[in-house]
Amino acid sequence: MVPTTHYAKSGDVHIAYQVVGEGPVDLVLIHGWISHLEYQWEDPALARFLNRLASFSRLIVFDKRGTGLSDRVAESALPTLEQRMDDIRTVMDAVGSSRAVIFGVSEGGPLSTLFAATYPARTAALIMYGAYAKYIRADDYPWAPTREQHEAAFIAYERHWGTPIGLKILAPSSADDERVRQWWAHYMRVSASPGAGVTLYRMNVEVDIRAILPTIRVPTLILHRSGDRLVSSQGARYMAGQIPDAKFVEFPGDDHILWIGNTDPLLAEIQEFLTGKPPILEADRVLATVLFIDIVQSTQRATAIGDSRWRDLVNNYQQHVGKEVARLGGRVVNTAGDGVFATFAGPARAIECARAVRDVVATLGLAIRCGIHTGECVIEGDDLAGIAVHIGARVAARAEPGEILLSSTVKDLIAGSKVECSDRGSHILKGVPGRWRLFAVKDS
């Protein structure tokens, strides 16, 4: 559930904030660049990350002035770091937090650092991820982007604001994931206007906090991914060398966005830093049967009836699928485009669901193809991932219109059932090692 959004007034500006969890330590999360308090919970990976933080802290998160649900301000009057520090103190006062751990992400890093140096009595500790001390290359800071590179980015972001721009740098591991692309594009649009977004970017480029790093006197943890394509890990190492007794931890990976990629080691490091105890991690893998359903010739159908009618038809179709999945004890994991990805505890119910859905959607004038596979899946919050999921999707792609196609694993597991199958031969599944024997479910 989305936490309640509250407002605290900092000067003449209302700052939107949320509080999640009841842990023993207050943790103020300062997002990078732009944010939107309520839309952030629409992304399963980000929601999982926030809930994990809230499992061992009282998490306090807010939209910086000019972004998200906080008051928008004129582009000519965007906030200084000093005003933003006032906003942090205002939110802390509003929630009754006299002292908190300050966690700055990316552009939030310099702000967090300045706050820790200026208000050490109110800063229990400092955490930074993907952050920097300076964001323009100089002779004594050679790993930052050049001003020319930034200028080119300013133009590109203003021209393409509200599209999936930047994901190949910000989150290369998910840059081709359509769900992530759509979410990121929407996140940009609701978090800031094009003018404000680019103006904030320009302001961030001019920040240089190198001189204050040696003045930090609170416990400091600096986290970074080694292949970060936006902010070089060299800058994180530099900060760790300048802040007295700072701890630097580098993780493998290329993603700059905090909640994308392998986040469990990062969260474990934060939890141990704050609590002194490593987390007891829940099982992150489970055996599951995955069912993929796609509408046949969806593009042609959408073109024929128009976008508005097509959206209504897809919504109707997905509601029918959801009811059948729930009736048979499964769970819809996601509905990207006109596809549905659902999971079940066993293959028999997945097959029964596929049959029921095929019959129901036929009344809507639609034909579907289905693929089913059983294997070990990786739990990522409310999502599932891993090779088993990939295989299931590839099996579905091989199915003919109206066909329910099974992997050989599923065929073996339903031995003794009344489900009859036809051998569809051996296939190479794109991106999956070896050859796979596939079977089509016969009509009962």
Could you please describe the fold and organization of this structure?
This protein is an alpha/beta fold and 444 residues long. Helix content is 37%, strand content 23%. The protein has 14 helices and 16 strands. It has an 8-stranded mixed β-sheet with strand order 1-2-4-3-5-6-7-8, with helices on both faces. Strands 9, 10, 11, 12, 13, 14, 15 and 16 form an 8-stranded mixed β-sheet that branches. The chain is elongated, with a radius of gyration of 25 Å. It starts with 5 loop residues before the first strand and ends with a strand.
List keywords for this structure.
444 residues, alpha/beta, 8-stranded mixed β-sheet, 14 helices, 23% strand
How does the SSE layout of this entry go?
Layout: E1 6-10, E2 13-20, E3 26-30, H1 44-54, E4 58-62, H2 81-94, E5 100-105, H3 108-118, E6 123-129, H4 147-160, H5 167-170, H6 178-191, H7 194-205, E7 220-225, H8 233-242, E8 247-251, H9 264-275, E9 285-295, H10 298-305, H11 307-327, E10 331-334, E11 340-344, H12 347-362, E12 368-380, E13 383-385, H13 387-398, E14 404-407, H14 408-413, E15 421-428, E16 435-441
Radius of gyration: 25 Å
**Strand order in space, largest sheet:** 1-2-4-3-5-6-7-8
List the uncertain runs.
none
- In terms of structural class, how would the helical and strand content be classed? alpha/beta
Largest sheet: 8 strands, mixed
Helix count, per DSSP?
14
How do the helices and strands follow one another from N- to C-terminus?
EEEHEHEHEHHHHEHEHEHHEEHEEHEHEE
**Helical proportion?**
25-40%
- Topology, number of strands: 16
Q: In angstroms, what separates the terminal alpha carbons?
A: 41 Å
* Overall mean confidence score, pLDDT: 90
Global morphology: elongated
Percent of residues in β-strands: 15-25%
